[in-house]
Amino acid sequence: MIPPQVQASNNDVNQVLSLGNICLLDGSWTASDRFSGCGWVWMDNREDIQLMGTRNFTRCESALHSEVEALRWAMENMLQHSSCQSFGTDCKELIAMINESQEWPRFATELEKIETLQICFPDFKITHVPRMRNQLPGFFS
Question: Going from the N-terminus, what domains does the chain have, and what CATH number goes with each?
């Protein structure tokens, strides 16, 4: 079970982040495997798990590509199954990509898909969740 609060550091100041009504996501990638994978879990305002999903796909170009794919798929599922507009990831590079997409030209095609989906989320937010808090036993590995 994911704890109800997360300690995060922002400019060396500890903050407590509530995880209520959030979709946590993660991508999986290794250079030697034929497939990449991703998963997400949606928790409601009471921080009860409401829905989760995992899938695999032909191996992406890099681990970061897998993280982008995880976000895209999680966003599509939240549009279909909930009103959740907050996403959590342990990948700081993914957050940087979303906030400064022009700085990541290698990912232009993937980020265009994310930007198109973002239009459907008027209050879209992506937050860093430390790795040890962004996992469920047997789910995100």
Answer: 5-133 (3.30.420.10)
